[in-house]
Amino acid sequence: MKLYTAPLSMFGAKVQIAALEKGLAFDYEMVPFDRDDRYEPKHPEVLRINPKRQVPVLIDGDVELFDSTQIFEYLEDIAPEPPLWPGDAAQRALARQLEHMSDEVFFPHVIRLMGLQHDMGSEAAIAACAGCARFYERMEERLAHGDYLASAYSFADIAFYMAHVFADRKGAGMTAATPRLLAWRERIGARPPVREVVGRMMAFLASQNRPVPVYLQSLLGA
Questions:
Q1: What is the pLDDT of residues 117-165, one digit of tens each?
Q2: What 3-state class would DSSP assign to 65?
Q3: CA–CA separation, 136 vs 185, rounded Å?
Q4: Domains and CATH numbers, the chain
């Protein structure tokens, strides 16, 4: 398998973590990434496979896929052990919904903040940070039921962990108001596949003289 991703691709990182959790062998090619968190120039294989012109893109023989969730579902099919969806149908549906919410409800606030770094005191930036805070509160409530967002460690945890990494980088980090969520972050961040993938990402940021979140700075010496 070959994965096209980028040094600062949150969605590509989700796929890399899932593949490592499953012990799958894969090569990856990092496409160029600029300081505005965009990847340029576009890779020809990415352009050929993905009409949205975005990473990640996975090639596995005749199988060519884009979109991190679709790629993950393929990995789950070809390598069902260890599972990264809960076994119970209701909990599996919940985990899938939470993964979707990380991408489509939480992360849009972060995307807005990416264009507001020059004016974090603006009404729009304050509203985006408030949107992230409300989502954190919702996940804090979820964690009253266990150590993970659904009944077991799943792709929902991977997705939200990575989305939060970018939220923290853009000024919407977690606070002491969500202690269960902070403990969850430590628990997920301690997993070797997460440390490996996020460590590479933080090393890239450091190589570009860009800030590394305080809670991730220990990865630079890993």
A1: 999 999 999 999 999 999 999 999 999 989 999 989 999 999 999 999 9
A2: strand
A3: 11
A4: 2-78 (3.40.30.10), 89-189 (1.20.1050.10)
Is residue 174 within 8 A of residue 143, CB to CB? The reply is no
Would you state the torsion angle of the CA atoms of residues 42, 48, 50, 56, taken in this order, to the nearest 10 degrees?
Answer: -60
Q: How many residues can be counted in the chain?
A: 222
For 175-180, which contacts have Cβ atoms below 8 Å and span 24 or more sequence positions?
175/133, 175/136, 177/133, 177/136, 177/137, 177/140, 178/136, 178/137, 178/139, 178/140, 179/140, 180/140, 180/143, 180/144
What percent of the chain lies above the pLDDT cut of 70?
95
How far is it, in rounded angstroms, from Cα 161 to Cα 186?
A: 10
Of 197, 132, 211, give the one whose Cα is nearest residue 169. Answer: 211
Tokens representing residue 209 in the block: 């003289």
Q: What pLDDT score was predicted for residue 43?
A: 87
